[in-house]
Amino acid sequence: xRDDARNAAYDVLRAVDERDAYANLLMPRLLRERGLGxxxxxxxxxxAYGTLRGLGSYDKIxxxxxxxxxxxxxxxxxxxxxxxxLRMRVPPHxxxxxxxxxxxxxxxxxxxxxxxxxxxKIAARTIDEWLPIxxxxxxxxxxxxxxVTHSHPRWVVAAFRxxxxxxxxxxxxxxxxxxxxxxxxxxxxxxxxVAELEESGAEPGRYSPYAAYxxxxxxxxxxxxxxxxxxxxxxxxxxxxxxxxxxxxxGPDRLWLDMCAGPGGKAGLLDAxxxxxxxxxxxxxxxxxxENGRRxxxxxxxxxxxxxxxxxxxxxxxxxxxxxxPGSGRGxxxxxxxxxxxxxxxxHLVAADAQHHRARLxxxxxxxxxxxxxxxxxxxxxxxxxxxxxxDAPCTGLGALRRxxxxxxxxxxxxxxxxxxLQRALLDSAVAALRPGGVLAYVTCSxxxxxxxxxxxxxxxxxxxxxxxxxxxxxxxxxxxGQGPHAQFWPHRHGTDAMFLALLRKTSKR
Length: 510
Ligand SMILES: C[S@@+](CC[C@H](N)C(=O)[O-])C[C@H]1O[C@@H](n2cnc3c(N)ncnc32)[C@H](O)[C@@H]1O
What we know:
The protein is an alpha/beta fold. Helices cover 46% and strands 12% of the residues. The chain folds into three domains: 4-128, N-utilizing Substance Protein B Homolog, Chain A, CATH 1.10.940; 142-178, no CATH class; 234-506, Vaccinia Virus protein VP39 (Rossmann fold, 3-Layer(aba) Sandwich), CATH 3.40.50.150. The chain has helices at residues 4-19, 23-33, 38-63, 72-86, 92-106, 109-123, 127-134, 142-149, 154-164, 170-178, 194-199, 223-226, 235-246, 265-276, 279-299, 356-365, 407-410, 416-433, 453-462, 491-494; strands at 183-187, 203-204, 211-214, 230-232, 255-258, 348-353, 370-373, 386-392, 434-444, 466-469, 487-488, 500-506. Strands 5, 6, 7, 8, 9, 10, 11 and 12 form an eight-stranded mixed beta sheet that branches. Strands 2-3-1-4 form a four-stranded antiparallel beta sheet. α2 packs across α3 (38-63), α5 (92-106) runs antiparallel to α6 (109-123) and α8 crosses α9. The longest helix is centred in the first third of the chain and has 26 residues, at 38-63. The radius of gyration is 24 Å and the shape is globular. S-adenosylmethionine is lined by residues 237, 259-266, 352-355, 358, 375-377, 392, 394. S-adenosylmethionine (SAM) is lined by residues 237, 259-266, 352-355, 358, 375-377, 392, 394.
C-alpha cells in the first residue's frame, strides 16, 4: 500500500542525515512535487519534524533495544517508528506495521524483520516509562538528564543553564524550545499596519505594536507580505530594533547603520522606522498600557498589567494561546514610558552584509535603505558618522533552535570561540562607526553568555568611551527581561526567540 506521508517524512530524514538538508526547506518542496496536501501534508510534516526534534530521546531508547548499531537508513526508520509510538497518537499496530512496510519497500526484507523486532520492544513502554530507564538520574547528572528527557545536546542545555541562572525553569525552557513557534508577522510602519494584517486573518501581537500572529495559512499569500510592506519576523527581533530607535539622542539623528543586515528582517523594520518614525506605534503602546493600568486598577488586580514583571502575567507559555484582542497579556513592563521617545522619522539607513546574496535579500525587502555588500570588520564607510548602529552579530543561533527541527544537532560548541572573535571585531568596528553621543545595539539570537554578556563587558573594558544603557527601560511593555542592564528574551517567558540586546552609548570620554 502506498504511504506517501511516511515516505516523504523518511526521505526528509535521510536527506538531513546524508546531505545536511534543511528539513523546513525540503519538506514543502517534496509535498509540492508529490502533490500531497491536507491531512497527508500535515502528517508528513509532523512525522519528520517531530522525529528530528525528539531524536535525542529516541536514539537512547533505540540503543536500549538493540545489540548492534543499526545502519543509518535503518536507524532513521526506527526513529520514525519510535516517534509514532511514543509521542503521536498512532495505534501501536499501525505505527509498527507502516514502518515495517516502509522498510521492506525501501531497504529489504532482512531489515524489515529487524525493525519489527525493535519497534515491538519500544512499544512495550510509554515515553514516561522509557525516559527514567535511559536518562541519567536528575540528582546525579542534571544536564545529562535534561539532555535526554528534553532531547537537546548536552552543551546546549549547559549554555541555557548558565544564561538562565535558574535550574527550576530549565525544563520549561527546553519544552518551549521543542514546540513549533507561531508564525509572527511585522507590519512595517508607514507601509502597513496590524489592522491590515488582521483583515488577512492575523491576530494582534503580544508586545510589539507592529506584530501580528498568523494562526494558519501561508504568510506569502498575504498581500502586504508579498509586497514587502509586511514580513515574517519574530516579535523579539522587532522589539530590539524598536528599542534602538527609541533611545533619545542629543544632536542630529539622520544616519543609521545595520552592519550585519542579511537577510533583512531588522533592516526592513529599521528602514521603515527611519523613514516614517514610530510615533503611531508608541502612541498605541502608551494607550494600551494606560488602559491596562486602568483595567487592572478597577479589577483590583495588582499583577499583570500594572507591575506584573513575572511569569504569572503570561500564563507561563506560548501555547496557552493569545486570549484576547490588542493589549491582552501586555503591559508586564518594568518601568513606565518615561525613557521612551518616539522617533519622528526622516533618517536614512545604510544596510550592509558581507555576503552578496544576503545583501541582495536586504535590497529586495527594504525600500529606502542604501544596501551594500561589505565586511563590517573592514568597513568602506567613514568612521564616527552614524547616529545609530545595529549590530545583529553572526552567532550560534542557540536562541532560535525551535525554528528548524534539526538545527540543535547541527550546532557545534567548537564554533563558539571563532564566533566570539568575530563578534568582538564587529563590535569594535561598530563603535568606530558611531559618532560621539550615538547609540549602538548589540544583538544576538543566542543567549550563550560567551556571545552576549562576555562580549559586551569586554567591549566596555576596551572602550572607556562606551556606557551601557538599561535596555529594559526602552521596552516598558515587556516584562521579565532579566537583571539588566541588557535585555534577554526567552521562548518560555515571552513566546519569542531567545534574543539578547545590549544598548551602548558612545560618550565623548576617552
Ligand atoms: C544574525 S545574521 C543577521 C540577521 C539580520 N539582521 C536580520 O534581522 O535579518 C548575521 C549576518 O551577518 C553577516 N556577516 C557575517 N560576518 C560579517 C561581516 N564580517 N561583516 C558583515 N556581515 C557579516 C552574515 O552574512 C549574516 O547575514
